[in-house]
Write a structure and sequence with these properties.
- This protein is 17% helix and 29% strand.
- The protein has one domain: Hexapeptide repeat proteins (UDP N-Acetylglucosamine Acyltransferase, domain 1, 3 Solenoid).
- It has a 9-stranded mixed sheet. It has a 7-stranded parallel sheet with strand order 2-5-8-11-14-19-22, covered by helices on one side. A 7-stranded parallel sheet has the order 4-7-10-13-16-21-24.
- The chain contains 4 helices and 26 strands.
- With 253 residues, the protein is of the alpha/beta class.
Length: 253
């Protein structure tokens, strides 16, 4: 069943009770006080340095900005962190240039990335009071977007090709015609759960409330609005065609 959630940046920016500094703190830093502000400003500034010097500086200083960082993590340039103390990254993971890791929220768990994972160039992992969890050896290719108002979880060895879009929540109510739609509650259906060893082809869209079983494949450009069993091979942007990868009876219609 859908439930109301509130995670819009517009709602934060439109809150007249907060100063500009308070809004910046709530959206970007997640902690109060001048020390937290100065630390965030200085350490995120290091993202612009190129080459071996930039790599070394980020390797040394970023673990003190983030919640937890394993050994051997590689940080690219021009990264964006929001609420960085709620971002945990496993050993050997690579975060490519221009990626966004946004763990924003007051009570959420934030972002957890397993060991030996890869976050591609320009990928966006954004929480709006939700959480995002990626298993070991996950591969999130360039320009993928994961938006969570509740929960997005991926198992181990998941591979998302470029430009995939996963949204947990984000379906706006529009019942009250006296208010702009963006200011009305979002409707969540329970988040997105993806098992181990799942491959999503380029441009796949996964909607809220969907579970995808382990060892499944979804063809490029497909829209997934229903649950998929294990070993499914699904494709289609309008009517999703589902087969069993193992060659058995069809898994669904």
């Amino acid at each position: 069943m859908a439930k109301d959630v509130y995670g819009s940046i517009q709602k934060e920016l439109g809150d007249g009770r907060k100063s500009l500094g308070g809004k910046y703190r709530d959206i970007f830093i997640g902690r109060s006080g001048p020390a937290a502000f100065l630390k965030y400003a200085f350490l995120t500034w290091l993202s612009r340095f190129q080459g071996a010097v930039g790599y070394a500086l980020r390797k040394v200083f970023y673990p003190s900005l983030l919640g937890c960082v394993g050994k051997g993590v590689v940080f690219g340039r021009y990264l964006t962190f929001r609420h960085p103390h709620k971002i945990r990254i496993g050993a050997g993971t690579v975060i490519d240039d221009y990626a966004v890791l946004d763990a924003k929220g007051e009570e959420n768990d934030g972002i957890v990335i397993g060991d030996q994972a890869y976050i591609g160039r320009g990928a966006i992992l954004s929480c709006k009071e939700g959480s995002i969890r990626l298993g070991d050896h996950s591969n999130i290719s360039a320009n993928c977007t994961l938006l969570s108002e509740t929960e997005i979880s991926l198992g181990s060895y998941c591979f998302l090709a470029g430009n995939c879009y996963l949204v947990a929540g984000g379906n706006h109510s529009f019942i009250d015609v006296s208010k702009p739609i963006m200011l009305q509650p979002s409707l969540a259906k329970g988040g997105i759960r993806i098992g181990d060893d799942v491959w999503l082809g380029a441009g796949v869209i996964v909607l809220d409330g969907v579970a995808i079983g382990s060892h499944s494949v979804v063809g490029a450009g497909s829209v997934v609005a229903i649950n998929l069993p294990e070993y499914a091979f699904a494709r289609g942007s309008r009517a999703l065609k589902i087969e069993d990868r193992r060659g058995g009876p069809a898994a669904g219609k």
